[in-house]
Amino acid sequence: SIETDLARSREASGDHGNKSDYGLEELAALSRTLSTRVAAVAELVHDVFDAAREPLDGDNALEHAVNDEPHYVVAAARVVELHARLRRTTLIPTALEDAKRSGEAPQEALERLRHSLTGVPARSDALQRLFKGARTRCIRVYAETQMRLVDEGSSRVEASLGAASACLDDLKSSHDKLKPCVPPRWPLVRIYRAAVEAHVTSQLQPFWSRDELEVAELMKVYEWLQAYNALVDKIDPICEEDNFSDDDDELPPLTFRGPSSLFNEAAEKLMAQYLARVGDQVEGWFGNIRAKKAAPRLDEHGRPVTTRPEDMFQIVQLQVSIAREHALKSADDGGQHVATVVLRCLEELRGDARRSVERASLCTDAVSTYVA
């Protein structure tokens, strides 16, 4: 059609020369026309490609899956996979061949392809879209649940943990609904895990960053962190990394495997705070027992006795029973939590026994000095 337009222009001007010979002006016009039309086609392809991926944006993917419209998500995922194949088999080899002929550095050619209208890494882009949608949904679910729980009279810690659990439940449900709609190698678990941890961490971090929680609240946060890590250890176990894409540098933060190291560190910090509280509390109670001025008591044989050891072991039993309750609520740790509390109480008992022996030794020395 371009040559036809040029031929008509020549006839109108009375030029009947060789139709295959173009002047400079005609070549310039031809170049401008070709550039315009090629650019229009490229832009059209980009727009069509972008529209085909729209079902993956925001909450669109989940809404389609929930509303019995999974075919939209399936079609979008199929387009993404077809483009990934086209990029791997055609676009990248062509870009490298062109770079070789022109003397351009291969990396520069690939970078230009990456930022072109049709050369964007579609699979990585799809994961980015799902991640952003999951993050937005997580923020909304967290805020709505937290406000509802506060209105119902929950404490700040209870409302925050309840909102975090709601996010986890919602995104687990989202994963279950979307998983059949996308290729098995798409790491939906890690996408949703990244979304949850990115938001929940920012909301819960003050609870373990500052030593200001009551013991009961402290243990609730600890138990939530333990339960979360027990869950992700099952759904995102530690294993050899798989090569998901040729463009791993553009994937969302999907470096997770197994329990969250940050949440493990936070749980250890909270446990240290809890054990310090237990030690201070037991030491205070032991001090009250030592300071108690009770009249001497005799047993059935007329020997003086004291209830102090019994009182102290009742305190230890109380702390151990509390630790057992918390252990039942948290993830199975093989009794490690209870054992740690028992050892902390035994440290206080040993300290009290050592002080008692020192006082008895001082009294014996004083009596010996007095008698001498």
Short synopsis of the structure:
The chain is mainly α.
Percentage of residues in helical conformation: over 70%
Largest pleated sheet: 2 strands, antiparallel
Low-confidence stretches: 243-250
Number of helices: 12
* Outline type: elongated
* Count of β-strands: 2
Order of helices and strands: HHHHHHHHHHEEHH
Q: What average pLDDT do the residues reach? A: 75
Structural class: mainly alpha
Measured by DSSP, the beta-strand proportion falls in under 5%
> Order of strands in the sheet with the most strands?
1-2
Distance between the termini: 129 Å
* Gyration radius over CA: 36 Å
Note the topology:
Layout: H1 2-13, H2 24-52, H3 60-66, H4 70-102, H5 106-114, H6 122-151, H7 156-178, H8 188-209, H9 215-235, H10 261-291, E1 297-298, E2 304-305, H11 308-329, H12 336-371
Antiparallel strand pairs: 1-2
Helix pairs in contact: 3-4, 4-5, 6-7, 6-8, 7-8, 7-9, 8-9, 8-10, 9-10, 10-11, 10-12, 11-12
Account of the protein in words:
The chain is 74% helix and 1% strand. It is built from 12 helices and 2 strands, in the order ααααααααααββαα. A two-stranded antiparallel sheet has the order 1-2.
List key phrases describing it:
single chain; 372 residues; mainly alpha; 2 strands; elongated
